[in-house]
Amino acid sequence: MSAYYRLPAGLPRVIPSNPWLRSASRAMSSFIGEENQSPNYDPRKYYPARAGETIARRYRILSKLGWGANSTVWLAKDTSRWLWQPNRYVTLKITNCGEAEQRSANEEVEISRYISQLQSNHQGRAYVRLVCDSFRIHGALGEHLCLVFDPLREPLWLLGKHLGRNGVPTAVLKPFLKMVLQGLDFLHSECHLIHTDLKADNLLVGFEDLGVLESYARQQETNPAPSWDGDGRPVFRSCPDFGHLRKGVGLVQISDFSAAVFGNFPEPHNHDIQPQPFSAPEVLLKATWTYSADIWNLGTMLWELLADRVLLDGLDPTTSTYSRGKHVAQMIRLLGPPPLQLLGRADRDVCSELFSSSGEFKMPGLIPSAEFNLANLTPFVQGEDKRLFLDFVGRMLRWEPKDRATARELYNDPWLNFKP
Predict the structure, then answer these.
(1) What single-letter DSSP state applies at residue 224?
(2) pTM for this one?
(3) Which SS3 state, helix, strand or coil, does residue 88 take?
(4) Catalytic hit among 78, 150, 197, 209
(5) What PANTHER family does the record tag this protein with (predicted)?
(6) Beta bridge partner(s), residue 74
(7) Is residue 197 annotated as a catalytic residue, yes or no?
(8) What are the residue ranges in the chain where pLDDT is below 70?
(9) How far apart are CA 123 and CA 125, in angstroms?
């Protein structure tokens, strides 16, 4: 397979002025610019990294790429290279110094080490992003674990923004989905891992040309992003825009294994996982879950990728807040009532809150009208492409986890091979 995927001919290459501004429909909240604007911001937990700073006597920070509740992410240049060697750039994820954040980061390092040591020729291995190295640095309140990754360009959903669209066109998305399915099959069948946190931000596309990185690095060194005081800690503006696509895009990789768990664990899993809009029925009902929770997750995420919208938001129209009952009600409208076998495995308290002993849903008023159906919710595909797409997602969005297709079975689905 080539090092990059060329976009179909005829599609415009346009990038907006702020490509990381996500729609309210996907984020389900107002856009937050930097970490200090988050209501849960604690400046004492974040490491006070600065552009131009050299970390671990090796990595010189060039720019901030983004941030999360538990970390900041930076592009850095490896200064340990000899003069005759080409430049090497890395992504540094500097985790917060809290106990929970450190534990999560350590788990990601251990998962990466486990995967990297596997003896496997599975093609899906190429579509999984692993930690290359890790080390600790000292901050005011304690140690910060720093994870080193090979740099990637951007989340998969941003390809739509490059193309001047509100969503990734199916012709562009299908080859990437095949890579994602190969990566998932590798994780499920060879690594025995369940990702548990699939979302568009965790599917990252590589660089089509190393010159993109060089140009970006020169720009950041010449004109670094501004910073301001964040309660005694510098806060830099995120600069994740690497410019227009030059000739295509790199391969996609599944990232962020901080919440991954082993599927062959002796005891069944039943703790809360997944981004809320993508939660599988067995997760909402606490009916134990396994690898197929990732499949449901991927199926619901397709609306985010293709149309920049959420399929099942679980928002109660009377309060505009999330409701587990509304979420289940939306599932009932799309899939019909859940099978009694699933309800029988569900947590007693959760199930009794939503269903009678005979399996009747107790909140029928929350069920959307008949217009809320998969056909009406997919205006972004047409004709035979739409029919095949609905068949494709129908193999993933099923009440019973055992009835869902596996990643390997989905790889050769007719929709992925159909060219309108």
Answers:
(1) P
(2) 0.90
(3) coil
(4) 197
(5) PROTEIN KINASE DOMAIN-CONTAINING PROTEIN-RELATED
(6) 64, 92
(7) yes
(8) 1-32
(9) 5
